[in-house]
Design goal:
The complex is a heterodimer of chains A (125) and B (276). Chain A is mostly helical and 125 residues long. Chain A starts with 21 loop residues before the first helix and ends with a helix. Chain A has 2 domains: 69 residues, no CATH class; 56 residues, no CATH class. Chain A is elongated, with a radius of gyration of 21 Å. With 276 residues, chain B is an alpha+beta fold. Chain B has 2 domains: 121 residues; 120 residues, Ribosomal protein S10 (Alpha-Beta Plaits, 2-Layer Sandwich), CATH 3.30.70.600. Chain B contains 8 helices and 9 strands. In chain B, the strands form 2 sheets. In chain B, strands 1, 2, 3, 4 and 5 form a 5-stranded antiparallel β-sheet that branches. In chain B, α7 runs antiparallel to α8. Chain B is elongated, with a radius of gyration of 25 Å. Classes of the chains: A mainly alpha (125), B alpha+beta (276). At the A-B interface, α1, α2, α3 and α4 of A face α2, α3, β5, α4 and α5 of B.
């Protein structure tokens, strides 16, 4: 779990050896001015937010799991998997309701629901 | 990667172009330096993409594994971030072995080679400026640590409260306790101030030797870690022929100040390509 090591800072960092401190790499590969804009927009977060998130995660996850606490895995705000699950649930519920309202529902209406879901997904980000 | 819900369309099997770094013309990078590398997990072979006088180090990666959505999931997983960040770093470092290379940030993606080439061409003057600036230079990271507390147990918060048989407190014990605490706090502050002033003088001396410098954020102490705290996390662009001088200076400063100073590098000048 603690492969991500923010503590150990001493290994001689020569090029791409795996001993190079990950925090040192992250602050270099993520945190620099965008030299050039890509076609596909990837929001990599602010390095500070990201490291805080990871640090908290690394520090607490083992202890918490030992105590049987795993709420972050189901909290959509904290876990992207949970966010997906929540969306899936919502999709299913919407589809069921639509089916109930329009018993003769066709593929066409299904697709409309999907479209609506997708736009909602985009709006959440 | 799994999609949240079954979609109507088939999963996008197409590839997109991931750009790691930009170098001067093909001769500057030995193809063998980069083509043997794994690059991004799931991607095709790492290769060179010539574009006018510039050459990009690129890789075709599966489009549906490099969407923002997938990256967001990836960024929630420390092991995944590590995997991708190290893969990126490895290719960038290899690209810079035989000449200057401008690293691009993690996850710089184009729909295809043509789009990537067009983007490079559009920014060619900037790339040339940066390449000129970083040629024969490397980035070196320097961290100054706050000194370890002299008497460890005294300083640490009541971590191991192991004394089971506690005696009744003597009169005045509370006041003594508070005074002791205050003393600890004052010593801690004094140590920190000293460390910060050491950091400032280290930075000033290294700046005199460097072509450019940048302050990075200090990494906070990690809960459950060894408690070491940075007071300086800086990075310097140093000419290759002055690298030994830099190492000697860092060593000398560490000895003179009795402070732990750590030097990392040489790095590809990641921190010195953003502005020009």
């Amino acid at each position: 779990m603690t492969d991500l090591d923010f503590r150990q800072g001493s290994p001689p960092a020569n090029g791409p050896q795996s001993t190079t401190n990950l925090a040192d790499i992250l602050e270099r590969v993520l945190d620099k001015g965008i030299v050039i804009a890509g076609d596909i927009k990837i929001d990599l977060l602010d390095i500070e937010l990201l490291t805080i998130r990871l640090r908290l995660f690394v520090a607490s996850v083992d202890t918490a799991k030992k105590a049987g606490i795993d709420w972050w895995e189901t909290d959509p705000a904290l876990s992207s998997r949970a966010k997906r699950d929540a969306l899936e649930d919502e999709n299913r519920r919407l589809r069921e309701r639509l089916q109930a309202l329009e018993p003769a529902g066709t593929d066409e209406t299904d697709r409309n629901v999907d479209d609506r879901d997708n736009s909602k997904e985009a709006g959440q980000r | 990667m799994t999609h949240p819900a079954p979609r109507d369309r088939a999963p996008d099997a197409a590839g997109v172009t991931y750009v790691f770094a930009v170098c001067r013309g093909t001769r500057a990078v030995n193809t063998a330096d980069v083509t043997g590398l794994a690059g991004m997990p799931g991607g095709a072979a790492v290769r060179l993409l010539p574009s006018g006088p510039l050459t990009a180090v690129v890789q075709t990666v599966p489009a549906d594994d490099f969407t923002d959505e997938v990256w967001q999931a990836r960024l929630s997983d420390p092991q995944e971030i590590e995997r991708y960040a190290r893969a990126h770093h490895e290719v960038v470092s290899a690209a810079a072995v035989h000449g200057p290379a401008v690293p691009l940030p993690l996850a710089t993606l184009y729909h295809d080679d043509d789009r990537a080439r067009r983007a490079l061409d559009g920014e060619a003057h900037r790339f040339h400026g940066v390449l000129k600036r970083i040629a024969h230079h490397a980035e070196w990271g320097v961290k100054v640590y706050e000194p370890e507390p002299p008497a460890a147990q005294e300083e640490r918060e009541p971590a191991p409260v192991g004394d089971g048989g506690r005696e009744a407190p003597a009169p005045g014990a509370g006041l003594a306790y508070l005074n002791r605490k205050r003393g600890v706090q004052e010593r801690r502050e004094r140590r920190r101030e000293q460390a910060l002033s050491v950091a400032e003088s280290v930075d000033a001396q290294l700046r005199a030797l460097a072509a450019a410098s940048r302050r990075l954020r200090t990494h906070a102490a990690v809960p459950g870690g060894d408690g070491r705290v940075h007071v300086l996390n800086a990075t310097y662009l140093v000419a290759d022929q002055r690298a030994e001088e830099l190492a000697a200076l860092v060593r000398a400063l560490g000895e003179r100040t009795g402070t732990r100073i750590e030097l990392t590098g040489p790095w590809v000048p990641y921190s010195f390509v953003g502005e020009v």
